Amino acid sequence: MLRAMQKDMQRFIPATGFNVVGVDDFEPPGEQLYLISHHDDQAGAEAALEAFQARSKGDKAYIYPSTMKLR
Amino acid sequence: MSKGKNRKAPDEGTDEIARLLKEGLDLAGKDPEKYWKAQQAQQAKTKPWPGIKRKKTKAKASSEDNDDAGIEKALFIGPRGGKWADEKHTIPWDPEKHGAGKATLKKKPKISPEKLREQIVAGREFLAQHEARLPALVQAIQQMAGESGEVVARVKELESAIGKALVRQPEKWGSDVRNLNDGSGARIIHQSVDQVLATVEQLKMRFKVTYDDDRISKPMGTYRSYHLGLEDPETGLQFEVQVRTANQNVFADWAHNIYKPLTPEQEALKTDPSVFGYEQAMADYFWNLDNGRVPGPKPNCPPPVAQAFGCL
Questions:
Q1: Best interface-test mutation with A: which of B6, B64, B66 has the largest number of A CBs within 10 A?
Q2: Nearest CA in chain B to A47
Q3: Number of domains making up chain A
Q4: Which of B70, B74, B220 sits opposite A28 (nearest CB)?
Q5: What does the DSSP 8-state code read for residue A40?
Q6: Which domain covers residue A30, as residue numbers?
Q7: What is B117-249's CATH number, 3.40.50.920, 3.40.50.720, 3.30.460.10, 1.20.272.10?
Q8: Helix (H) or strand (E) holding B151
Q9: Residue A49 to residue B170: CA distance in whole angstroms
Q10: In a structure prediction context, what are the per-residue pLDDT tens digits for chain B, which is 312 residues long?
Q11: How high is the ipTM of this complex?
């Protein structure tokens, strides 16, 4: 399960900038992430994350920076 | 949408689609026919379509614009922000199938702006129908679950629905959010596998079953949960019910910690071999507990797990 989830994460790490990524935990492992928005700057991503969390029905969301490295 | 000082030509398409997307998001509550006629008249006067050269007008930056641009990139470019740095991770984000192009919007997307706009409006309506029916369905499901069953439910987020129907699995869902069979979902949590299976039988008797996915007897790796696709007898809406034990739920929640970004040093710990050993050992431990068997001692939580995930 963890390997499938990590592969999903890999798909959502941007080459540049920042992705705001949501987690739909009703989807099966490996298919739970979805893109909310992409930003060139961190401040924009943080604002978008905050806006999403305010209107979301409960899905968790994170910022994935291009510098994020998975093995 | 944020606009850098040195924007390059390919981003003009991004601006246009983001604007269309925003219109779609703003449409709720308006008369669609009048609204689109007015918008089309306005577009004809002021805005080019992607690929048609016209002087750019500077858009007001807002977080909502950024959200819209993000959805657009999910659909047309892919999650890597427009640059497919690692081709082996493009599946199922196949640029050929999904019209992404390799890095920019120079290639005309196969999902047209009109289609996207239509899907956003349709998606909002579709999810609103689920939202309206959810309380009644939860009540019915709670009856099936009995007093010992804890029920939680949610309606899918629009971004998740669009990403699933148009990008992740467009062929399966016909690129239409209205075809999704899990616009809403409920989860029933029990203490034992026997209780789970009893509730599953109750649900099967009460509702029309559209799919039956037993991931308890046939787990996906270490993931165990019983998924049932059901049809609302009053509206015909399809929804999903997941039935699992409290231990299976705790285990799934624990695994979600993998998504939380950590420092580079901590990220490296997530794939330490001891993590996967602990994952399997705890899954087996819970499985024995849920089936009333003596599971033996609780598996030790190795330091990489404690640091990157926390211990179960």
A1: B66
A2: B63
A3: 1
A4: B220
A5: S
A6: 2-65
A7: 3.30.460.10
A8: strand B150-155
A9: 26
A10: 344 444 333 344 444 444 555 555 444 444 545 545 555 555 444 443 333 333 333 334 444 444 544 555 555 544 454 433 333 333 333 334 333 333 333 333 467 777 888 889 999 999 999 999 999 999 999 998 998 899 999 999 999 999 899 888 888 998 899 999 999 999 999 999 999 999 999 999 999 999 999 999 999 999 999 999 999 999 999 999 999 999 999 999 999 999 999 888 888 888 889 999 999 999 999 999 999 888 789 999 999 999 988 999
A11: 0.95
